[in-house]
Amino acid sequence: MKLKYILPLCIALQLCTSKLWSQNKSDQPNILFIAIDDMNDWTGFLGGHPESITPNLDKLAEEGINFTNAHCSAPGCSPSRNALLYGVEPYNSGLYPFYDEGIHQSLMKKYTSLPRLFKENGYETYGAGKIHHGSKNDPREWTEYENDKPEGKKKFKEGEGYRLGKSNKMSFRPTHHPDKDHKDYIVASYGVDVLNRQHDKPFFLAVGIVKPHLPFDAPKRFFDALPDSILPPAIKANDLKDIPMEGKKIRKAGEANKFHRDQAWSDVRKAYLACISWADFNIGRVLSALENSEYADNTVVVVWSDHGFHLGEKGAFKKFTLWERATRVPFIIYDPRSPQQKGRTYDESVSLINIYKTLADMTGIEVPDYVDGQSLVPVLNNQTTQMTYPTIISWGKGNYAVRSKDYRYIHYFDGSEELYNHLNDKNEWHNVVDKSQYQEIKNELKTYLPKDEAPMIKEYVNPWSVEGENREEYRPVKQK
Question: Is it the case that residue 10 has pLDDT exceeding 60?
């Protein structure tokens, strides 16, 4: 049986029957590490939106392990990627908000990043696109990093799509210039090139796909493949009435209100789905290159998104909340050496913080003592394996969500709380934190809150992104 990646034509991916993983360094697998920016669960394999078109990711999920309840460590690019790539939760590193690129040098003195770990253990490391939130071609991490090649000038047609004012970032329009002049196509092409080379050592290849990050611009054919009017997500009137003030403060509602005013939500959502399809297309190009290479039978594929995304739910746009919409992410691990994992799903709550230890475990590399999380290799071997603790998501010191298989508990720095029962409230419409029948569950989840929170790192911080107990220091409330 062959897996077909769609470009849009089908290309086969062979399976093999070797072991799932090995600690024998002479037989170390290659790693294809695909990072996606801002992709929520609006994919076919997660069922987040009925009109999504993601054939390549869907097929990969059918062949590997689809972690259906995966969550980021923080609902923002910088803290999420710092946690994953350095292997440290924000509440242990103090890296709660966004940082300028200069923070990278400080972090490299303190931690061993994931690509650096592989490079220092005999791997050739290659990267392109958005992996870190900022730093790119650091020779301590990368054997080779594709220098940014400029995109071609974007071409649009008047009257197509939507644009908020004159903002280039708030653009939701089909493009009319060649694929090769789009950033993600350039990045994927680099991945294809690396896979077509001869390698004498195992390699770690990181491909950072930027879409569906703003602006939501993508080639016109991906817009044309979607319906004219996009089905809205489930939204409840007065959804915010049972949410504490701190929960309301951290959500970003400005653009959401403008989209409502302009009656543009369908255009925005269509552009988001088009960008997801465009990301899927470029990921498919890399996966098909792997299938056609001599490395197909010994390359582990890991696909993840740095956080989720609101598209009107709870009156919000973008990420930056502790609700499901902002934290749930696509996460797939495919190992061609393990045919028994084919088509499996894992529904327990899983954090992306586990990627660091998992890849090290699969390649027999020892990790630094400070690394958080746990290896998912036992889960890859047996999908009935239970995780030992739920997922913790941070958004500012003192603001946390605890996500178990069936519940989400949120605790804000001011002591306010939320609790959602995902068994009967997947949209998180009903905050049941004060209901007597849920007190035992709330108290149990509360025990997982960080006991010793690291102070927020203030060097190179971006003030706009500071939340939790440090927010007033950087963005004091104006006195009336």
Answer: no
